[in-house]
Design goal:
globular, alpha/beta, 203 residues, three-stranded parallel beta sheet, 7 strands, two-stranded antiparallel ribbon, 31% helix
């Protein structure tokens, strides 16, 4: 993986690697194990195999590659991705790690439980700041608990300012709707039309 354990995190990026092809039969159970995430985090493959024979918990605390501990729900898709692969959306996290610099201000719009929030906070460092927006009350509560855990961890992180509002080009109130699949994917709530509640940011 592209994160290396040391006091001041520095990127150790490996470019040009998309997949790790091994000469095995094309069985779906094995093909699920041939992933870039496991190539850069071999221990995660061990965790995946071990967890595969255990019942899925409804809640678990795991450590992300940038050393932040996060509480997840492995029974829904976001938590399951982290549970299996050790990270959520590898391409997005790698791009952000490359682009964000120490001392910058960053915004996570639709922060959910805070995976990207934690990465941004680690990347901007103590001289930067992160504004995290999550309008869903239940998810925002979980985000707040994760942020509190990080702030108490002693890791060098930028301050995180939480907002329980949605972002829009208009001010007002509207309804946040959970889709029928929300319990399986708690990142798919949507705005139900009308004026949207927004928070004004300083630029």
């Amino acid at each position: 993986f592209f994160f290396q354990a040391e006091d001041g995190i520095r990127d150790k990026l490996v470019t040009g690697v998309q997949t790790c092809a091994l000469p095995i039969s094309p069985m779906s159970s094995l093909s699920n194990l041939i992933k870039t995430e496991y190539f850069f985090q071999p221990t995660q493959l061990f965790h995946r195999v071990l967890r595969g024979v255990q019942p899925l918990p409804s809640s678990a605390v795991v450590t992300l590659p940038w050393f932040c501990q996060i509480e997840i729900n492995p029974r829904e898709s976001i938590g399951r991705s982290i549970w299996d692969l050790g990270v959520l959306d590898l391409p997005a996290t790698e791009v952000l790690w490359r682009l964000v610099r120490s001392g910058e201000s960053a915004v996570d719009a639709g922060a959910n439980i805070g995976v990207i929030t934690s990465l941004l906070s680690r990347r901007v460092g103590t001289d930067g700041e992160v504004l995290a927006f999550e309008p869903h009350p239940r998810i925002h509560s979980r985000l707040g608990a994760n942020v509190a855990r990080w702030m108490e961890s002693g890791l060098p992180m930028g301050p995180i300012e939480l907002h329980s509002t949605a972002l829009s080009n208009q001010s007002g109130e509207t309804t946040l709707v959970e889709t029928p699949d929300f319990e399986r994917n708690q990142g798919v709530a949507s705005i139900a039309g009308g004026d949207r509640k927004s928070t004004r940011l300083n630029s």
